[in-house]
Write a structure and sequence with these properties.
Elements (H helix, E strand, L loop, with lengths): L2 H12 L3 H4 L6 H14 L6 E6 L6 H8 L3 E8 L2 H13 L4 E5 L12 E7 L8 H11 E13 L1 H25 L1 H4 L9 H7 L2 H4 L6 H10 L3 E8 L2 H16 L8 H23 L7 E7 L3
Parallel strand pairs: 1-2, 1-4, 2-3, 4-5
Antiparallel strand pairs: 5-7, 6-7
Helix pairs in contact: 3-4, 7-12, 12-13
Length: 299
């Protein structure tokens, strides 16, 4: 199975559970997070009339940007037809009209100079042909249009986060061995079929790339974008976030104390603020977990 087919199968399988898996919502919590990532990259306070999100998934980034007043007319693409369906349905529930199309980022089905904003979140590392995709992003943007790609993991940040995931898995297994697996580990929900296991196994196949901040900048520049910048964020917040996500996945959120989700979220917020205000001043940007790329199409 090639990379594109693996992404289709995996994300079709994940579409109906994706929001729960990643704690995606369309309320004030995620509106503030999405708008915060955007405004970290784009400092001028204005809205954009026609916006496209590539690899939109269930709509986390663009739908929340629309609710924050940043994006107007909404268009989304994804290689997964089921993701597009869920995204359009999410928009409908929010009172937002979303025009969705199943498409590769390397061959966008829009004329030149169509959008004044193109965004993506946690998508570029899935794309097999990066230079072709970035050329397409530039093509569909109007002259002076803005590109914002957020949620791209750095090479070093991902390596460190993986150590925290492993430590969390070992810790949970040790507790399960001491107290009994039936008391600690999550039970299956009845969907653990052979088909489910085969689709889930593709998770390790769908990620094609990890980047340094400089490599992301180079992608934008090679495509001819101007004003290319990469911001990084999440250091200690990513260490805690991946640890707690691993525990939640293995134990099951229903087995954790009732107040745990809000406790974890507030602690993550404090660590995020610490990373932004303190760690960013002394730690090299390449060690942070997330990249945000911003650029403009040449005039």
């Amino acid at each position: 199975m090639d990379a594109k087919q693996a992404n289709i199968v995996y994300h079709d399988w994940e579409a109906t559970t994706y929001d729960d898996k990643w704690s995606i919502s369309f309320d004030e919590r995620c509106i503030a997070y999405a708008a915060g990532r955007f405004r970290k990259a784009v400092r001028e306070p204005r809205g954009f009339d026609r916006a496209l999100e590539i690899g939109a998934g269930t709509g986390f980034f663009l739908l929340n940007l629309a609710q924050a007043g940043i994006a107007g007319e909404l268009h989304v693409t994804d290689i997964s037809s089921r993701m597009v369906q869920v995204c359009v349905a999410n928009g409908s529930r929010l009172g937002l009209q979303v025009q969705g199309r199943v498409a590769d980022a390397e061959a966008l089905p829009y004329p030149d100079d169509t959008f004044d904003l193109v965004v993506g979140h946690a998508v570029v590392h899935h794309l097999p042909d990066l230079d072709t995709a970035f050329a397409e992003l530039r093509r569909v943007l109007v002259p002076g249009g803005r590109l914002v790609i957020a949620g791209e993991p750095t090479r070093a940040g991902d390596a460190v986060a993986n150590q925290f995931k492993r430590a969390a898995r070992v810790g949970v297994k040790l507790v399960a061995a001491a107290l009994g697996a039936d008391r600690v580990l999550a039970t299956h929900n009845g969907h653990d079929t052979e088909c489910d296991r085969a689709a889930a196994a593709l998770e390790e196949e769908v990620d094609q790339h990890l980047f340094t901040p400089r490599q992301l900048e180079d992608l934008g520049r090679r495509a001819g974008f101007c004003d290319v910048e990469v911001h990084t964020e999440e250091l200690t917040a990513s260490w805690f976030g991946w640890t707690t996500r691993t525990v939640e996945a293995m134990v099951g959120i229903e087995r954790l104390p009732e107040g745990y989700p809000w406790f974890a979220y507030r602690l993550w917020q404090r660590l995020f603020a610490f990373d932004d205000a303190v760690a960013a001043r002394v730690v090299p940007k390449s060690l942070f977990y997330n990249c945000i790329l911003t650029a403009t199409a040449p005039v």
